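Protein folds are increasingly written down as discrete tokens. With that in mind, we are printing a sequence and the tokens encoding its fold.
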Amino acid sequence: MPTYSGGDVTETATMSYPVPAGRSSISARQRDFRVDLAKGKNTHANVAIVCAALSLLAWPFACVAGFVFGALGLRRAGQYVAVGHPPIGRGLSFGALALSAVGTVVTVVTFMFR
């Protein structure tokens, strides 16, 4: 491989370096969700239910996170159904959305009467 020695560096600048074997781009890994589905987990649903439970303590961030991760958990459950698996985490996600709604009401009432 040519190195810079004070002369012309155009050869070094135009060389393409190979991607190491076994490493794919991030977008390729994101598109291949079947590898993630093979694990049989719905982590978004688990995170959603924890955030929704924390939203009952009147934490506004937990309310928003419960809604976001609940929606992501439902989407992941739909991906499971699309490839022929049972809807893993669908119930947790629905529960998290409901609990986040209750937590949002608790948060609003708490901040109104402070």
Summary: The helical segments are 10-14, 26-31, 34-37, 43-55, 60-82, 90-112. Confidence is low (pLDDT under 50) at residues 8-13.
